[in-house]
Amino acid sequence: MLEYVLLGMLMEGQMSGYDLKKTIDHTVGHFYAASFGSLYPALKRLADKGFVSVFETADSKNKKLYSLLPEGKEVFLKWLEEPQAASREQLIRIFFFDYLDKDVRLRRLQEYLYTAEHELRALEAVQSIVAEELAGMEHPEDYYYRVSVLGYGLNHARMQKQWIKDIMERKDLGHVKPES
Amino acid sequence: MLEYVLLGMLMEGQMSGYDLKKTIDHTVGHFYAASFGSLYPALKRLADKGFVSVFETADSKNKKLYSLLPEGKEVFLKWLEEPQAASREQLIRIFFFDYLDKDVRLRRLQEYLYTAEHELRALEAVQSIVAEELAGMEHPEDYYYRVSVLGYGLNHARMQKQWIKDIMERKDLGHVKPES
DNA sequence: AGTTGCATGTAAGTGGTTACATGATTCA
DNA sequence: TGAATCATGTAACCACTTACATGCAACT
């Protein structure tokens, strides 16, 4: 996972490990954390595999600049267009979807939409079972918070579904603006 | 984490490891996965620490029933009322909030609301910076998907904020119903 | 002179997963 | 009788975190 994120970040150009960490932190950092303890060994592995090249700067700072090599780019793009991905991984992939052909991208997004709709229906099914169970109880209010997290799940699934729909249509990025 | 989830699930009554897995899967399973490979060793640790008791059934199935011991209950409730929790852990804690005193619960939820609002403001700040950067570009559409995940983050943060507000007010669980 | 930021790295530990191994029970 | 489900457990592995260790550079 981290290795692909690093390759993806290097698509924009050469960077040091330190800068890669910063870039990850203030882009996908809200849902994907990378620590130096995992980042530096990952960069070493990528260099060993010949996916990135290392340029040691002479500016006395002991800084290393990593660049994407053709094989690394290939591996990254291959990963990017793969179908199926766990929900956390979906989000990271979408972050890099500007690098993907329009048709492959739309196919993947359609698949993600499908899984989101599936998830939503599954949660709605659970909800109606829970609603029935609750109706036959003396003190349904004792289960308020248990049930509330189901509500969270439903809110999340609905939001996710709508968001994927929006980005498939390439809705104006303004939908992202604050309401003010 | 898993150990607390197991203790929490045992608050309802005795259960086997297998049943605990099922219960986790169809309650908090949507945001917390537990595999047998982590579950059984966790139960053993809980038994070794004296937090749960093990009753081996004689029904030839080699089934073990786990029950919460007073010390285990104490440890669980102590964990539950702790302040600060990572966002994934917040959700799991809230699932068990029916076991918490009203006043402690409201204090924790108020804190969670605070962090949600903080997160939202941080994302809105990032968004206005990104909007400026985008305005000074020749091809802002080349960054559509990069920016779209920021939109996801904003949607998520807003949803989370509203949800916490709702459950603080103990809004009708009906808000959870499908729109149909 | 001291703190913060830049910069890289290692070692031990954590919290899991995956795959395997075993065996009883239930139901079609 | 064979498949699905119930039931428990281990061993190898994995991706990562935390804490540590080092040192230079920039600012104040």
UniProtKB/TrEMBL annotation, chains A, B:
Q: What is this protein called?
A: PadR family transcriptional regulator
All residue ranges annotated as the Transcription regulator PadR C-terminal domain in the record:
89-169
Q: Which InterPro entries match?
A: Tscrpt_reg_PadR_C, Tscrpt_reg_PadR_N, WH-like_DNA-bd_sf, WH_DNA-bd_sf
Organism field: Paenibacillus apii
Give the Transcription regulator PadR N-terminal domain ranges: 6-76
